[in-house]
Amino acid sequence: xxxxxxxxxxxxxxxxxxxxxxxxxxxxxxxxxxxxxxxxxxxxxxxxxxxxxxxxxxxxxxxxxxxxxxxxxxxxxxxxxxxxxxxxxxxxxxxxxxxxxxxxxxxxxxxxxxxxxxxxxxxx
Length: 124
Known about the structure:
Layout: H1 5-21, H2 27-37, H3 46-58, E1 62-68, E2 74-80, H4 82-104, H5 109-122
């Protein structure tokens, strides 16, 4: 299924923060984890992720720290800050409300129109 770009953009910050709430991580691993969490439906690129990480860092939601990879090369790891954890909880509550609203809508537009048509014929 192709996911609308607006929805991908809106979900990017909470997804990154949620992944970092599991523990420190680096760019490629975050991209891989997004793919795992979405069952392969979301395929992020470096060009999408790094601007998000840099913005989150500027806002104080993540902290970048240099570390070493398994091969001994320097790698930048990202760590969720206390402010980032608080922001993630706010985002989760907001997404939960959106999810509740969508589920409460009850039916697709075509089903609602059919029901209205059925109701109008029932009385006549």
